[in-house]
Amino acid sequence: MSILLIWWRQLQPAADLDWAPDVAHLATGRVDGDRLTLDHVRCFGWRTRDEADVAWETRHYSLSQLSSLDMFVSGWGRPGIAHVLLSFGFSPRAGAELDDTEFVAISVEVRREKHERFSELGGFFKQYELAVIAADERDAVRLRSNVRGEKVTLYRVMLSAKDRRELLVALVDEANDLDSTPRFYHTITANCSTIVFSMMRRIIEGLSVDHRLLLTAHLPEYVRDHGGLVPGVTLAELKRHGDITSRAQAAHSIDDFSRCIRRGVPGWTSRPHV
């Protein structure tokens, strides 16, 4: 047992392995006044689960135009388990809703090597490094809804402009830290929900630890209970109208993908929350 313990403690996360193409780069970035620059925004054109037209871009955003935050919850049939992505919207015109809005999705996930496949069990045993990935929605969302056949639900998140900005900057800081100091992914303590929760707890006082942070398919209920979803709409209605799977599949080849998937989603039919 002591030999195993010594071996376990000697395992160290790496930064320079032969990474799978979709996690080859982390979403490093920098803020200069109002200007946010994100390096390595993934813009893959997925053909199959394992084949894509590879493209990475550097993109620039004005933080004063950060107008929205959405949460995508993507499930693949495991009871209680789902992947969560956050998408930040930037609009040059106040009140323009989806007109001219540019979105960037942020995903906390495993950083796999080329030969590896993800497993929840492996996530307990230092098998994967941790990654923060920035991606175009036509990459990150279509991969799950259209290529992998997952059920994807979109929720508009009600955060103030100040809190949205703090969360986005915190995610960029986390990505920068991971780029310089790798960490292991952990199925419970360092995953797509708990990393974001630790940031939100610094932004909003009084957030409680809850089992729904681990059973991520139930995360929308937790967010709703803390006033983070569109008010005056039941959770069942939010789920029903927020199920974008069929709309995403219908809009697969449409450039205006982000607008199409938001049609009818509560919170996207009225003025943005500020």
DSSP, total strands: 10
Termini gap: 55 Å
The overall pLDDT, averaged over residues, is: 87
* Biggest sheet descriptor: 5 strands, antiparallel
Radius of gyration (CA) equals 18 Å
Secondary structure class reads alpha+beta
What would you say this structure looks like, in words?
The protein is globular and about 50 Å long. Residues 270-274 have low confidence and may be disordered. It has 274 residues and is an alpha+beta fold. A hairpin with a 2-residue loop joins strand 1 (29-32) and strand 2 (35-42). It has eight helices and ten strands. The protein has a five-stranded antiparallel sheet, sandwiched between helices. Helix content is 28%, strand content 23%.
Offer a few descriptive terms.
274 residues; alpha+beta; 5-stranded antiparallel sheet; 3-stranded antiparallel sheet; 8 helices; 10 strands; 23% strand; disordered C terminus
Question: Short summary of the structure?
Answer:
The protein has 274 residues and is α+β, with helices and mostly antiparallel strands. It contains eight helices and ten strands.
